[in-house]
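FORM 7B - TANDEM STRUCTURE REPORT

SECTION 1: FIRST PROTEIN
SEQUENCE AND TOKENS:
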Amino acid sequence: MKLEGVTIALLVDHPFEDLELMYPKLRLEEEGAKTLLVGAHDTRTLYKGKHGYPAASTTKIDELGGAEAIDALVIPGGFAPDYMRRNCAMLQLVADCFAADKPVAAICHGPWMLCSARDDKLRPVVEGRKATAFVAIKDAVVNAGAQWGDAPVVVDGPLITSRPPA
């Protein structure tokens, strides 16, 4: 198993895109990773996806222990990132993962978080990076200083961004 001993956090909030949360979670676990569903509310909060699929958080963001507690981060899309980016602790986790050069993957609307999370100089963490996202947030990603990549997946060092699953 390629990812045995690796802990990967997946951020969750209402209404996440079902496939963008559950499919990466299952695939990462198949490779041996320990996954944590990290939400803003109490542990075991039941979040519902856009299509009604439930996901119970395993960890509250305030109890995670920061970027030191994980090896990588996944930010699923749906409308959830619009709520996630209003949470200072979630934004700080994203910024800390970037500062520590840990892999960060953002799917569809997930790159909204990369526009709102700031480095120690208060710049968006996506500034100067290559990225893609759902077309509806392209302007936000570009205005945050990213170099837009018109591709299904864009990899820039430890940053991995993608468009919708289709």
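SECTION 2: SECOND PROTEIN
SEQUENCE AND TOKENS:
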Amino acid sequence: DYRALLSELPLNPGEMDRLRPWLAELTLSSSFYGEQAFSVSDGADARLLGYALAHKKALRYLESPRQQLELLANSVGTSEVNSFETFVTSLHDSPRGINSTTAAWLSGDVDRLSMDLQATLAAENPAAKAVLLDDRNRAWAAEIGRMLEDGKTYFVTVGVGHLGGPGSVIDLL
């Protein structure tokens, strides 16, 4: 399944084989969805960052890119290979899932988007859910709470998986 997937994507198999499974999974996912015209370069994060830079807005981050990569790397634990294998074998079912996700996004159904992601993580890797969602939500809610107390106005963005359901950033705030 892995070799068949690689043959469909503009990736170098030799380079992919050197990656840890979690990073190979991330790379495959980005490439697969990029081939279907989904791109982070035109996503909400890129557009908001472009606006902020063009209008000389001050930027703060709840965590650094390095911290995010470390969280990803450390969240997989012993299930890293299992997660990769599940991802590879189920990726071709993703268009159905991405269409459902896109419909939920377009209709503003934050709870559905969040709960789907949370349920998937909880089923596949409960420890990863704790690290990637639950722990971060608590840390971010505390930081946003401090921001609310300082009397300034902030525009805060987080990924949709952090917005809906119990234990979300909004719920914790």
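SECTION 3: OBSERVATIONS ON SECOND PROTEIN
The chain has a mean pLDDT of 85.
DSSP finds ten helices and no strands in the chain.

SECTION 4: SIGNATURE
Preparer initials: ____
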